[in-house]
Prior knowledge:
By secondary structure, the protein is mostly helical. The protein has 5 helices and no strands.
Amino acid sequence: MIDAKTQERLQEIIRRESRSEMMYVAQAFPWTSAQGVPAREELLRLAAEEREAIIALGRWLNRRHIAIDTSASFPSRFTTINFLSLAHLLPQLVQAERAGVAALEADLAQTHDAEARAHIEKLLFVKREHAAKLEQLSEPHPSPASA
């Protein structure tokens, strides 16, 4: 049996991560030139991986009869990033993903249930990996004409 504080923490992780900036941007389908299409496709792939990790945690909670609130909406501040280019959004996403990693690390430090820790660690692994990949995507790449 998972204690009440751990249940609340896990529910908060699902709420926070399912309404993250990464999840929002993936649904907003950011603009990019033809040259940036591979980066956008990679971003969408990363978002799908993250979504799957969040769903896995939710399924685990569901099997333990722990309710998940799916009614939360994205923060209204995200509406300011609609119609922005991928090149502009990537540095913001790196920062948001790093903040998500820090939040999960804090959650992990406060969680003592072994199974719950294992699920947080899986999501944390995905977020760390994605933060690094987003950082690579956000690095400036020389255009073919300047090479």
